[in-house]
Amino acid sequence: MPSDHLCAYYDSGRCRSCTLLEWPYERQLADKQRSVEELLAGHADLEWLAPARSAQLGFRNKAKMVVTGTAEDPALGVLRPDGTGMDLRGCPLHTPGIRAALPVLAGFVTAARLAPYDVGARRGELKHLLVTESPDGELMVRFVLRSTEAETRVRKHLPRLVDELPGLAVASINVQPEHKAVLEGEREILLTDRETLRMRVNEIDLHLRPQSFFQTNTTMATTLYRDARAWVGEVGPASVWDLYCGVGGFALHLAGPGRRVTGVEVSAEAVASARLTAAEAGLRDVDFVADDATAYALVAGGAPDLVVVNPPRRGTGPELAGWLEASGAEHVVYSSCNAHSLARDLRAMPSLVPVRGRVLDMFPNTGHYEVLTLLQRR
């Protein structure tokens, strides 16, 4: 499909972030499949399932918008290499609800007199707008500010914003005072009674707090968790650890009668979200621990039947890979957003052999993807 049917920003040359946008979608999928198969070519027992397809547009459930310009005329988008802003509020990757909300939020910036942060001059207040849409059309909006100077104005104008965005469920101020390329700070000020956004995935309502991570492609997340549940169901472990569990996506999908599941996540906010979902679902044999995944494993004094790992792009690292190799875990489900680090970690775990894999197109129009693998001890 030619690019002029997809994105005006790309066609005009204003944004080229979607590096594969001009490629036919079948070619994108085939190239991703070929890439991961080449990286894992040494594993002869690995059976590949057909890649999971995504919509090319309208799939991204989270917008991370840099705010530039002025309070009277804000731009919501990204920074150019020269430090100036480029407005991308109509980016077609975002869900329809987010695209509809961004112009309303630009008007709110003007009404509340939120001066965008000027990186070069180091002045201004509003750094980013972070907007997440749930599958049910509800929104979480976070204002990343340099200080709390504008909090009173934000609160004053919030009722009008709620009127204009009926789907607004959670709103907060995140305070990020430092002059560095950090998306958000540690302090979060809730502005609404609701503390969590419900992300309905399969039959589970995952609770998302402002500082919790969630996959940016809800459809692919749904497939990811469903596949993992099916694979683990075939193996039938009595005990499971979900390391880097986030808000509990894998752990809560794998919970069931006769199976003990423990999720481990360094973010206390994410752990609180996971515990809330488990309590609402009446899951008694699931618990969550706020801890570093590697540190938890190294001092646990044992291993479950199966371990799920869903690490950041850097992979598990040598310590956790070494622990997995030496552990008594019979199976590992490894969900990776970086096949290069996956291949490296597999080399450090020669006793755990990948027997099944699937590419999930979590990030269409780019060279990135998610790959799910089932490892079996030989």
CATH class of the largest domain: Alpha Beta
Largest sheet features: 8 strands, mixed
Task: Please give the count of helices.
Answer: 10
- Quantity of strands, as a count: 17
Strand content: 25-35%
Distance between the termini: 45 Å
What would you say this structure looks like, in words?
This protein folds into 2 domains: 8-56 and 217-377, Rossmann fold; 62-193, OB fold (Dihydrolipoamide Acetyltransferase, E2P), CATH 2.40.50.1070. It starts with 7 loop residues before the first helix and ends with a strand. β6 (139-145), α4 and β7 form a beta-alpha-beta unit. The chain has helices spanning 8-11, 25-39, 96-111, 151-164, 218-235, 249-254, 268-281, 293-299, 317-326, 339-347; strands at residues 47-48, 62-69, 74-79, 85-87, 126-133, 139-145, 168-175, 187-190, 197-201, 204-208, 239-243, 260-265, 286-290, 306-309, 331-336, 352-360, 370-377. Strands 1-16-17-15-14-11-12-13 form an 8-stranded mixed sheet, sandwiched between helices. Strands 4-3-2-5-6-7-8 form a 7-stranded mixed sheet. The protein has 10 helices and 17 strands.
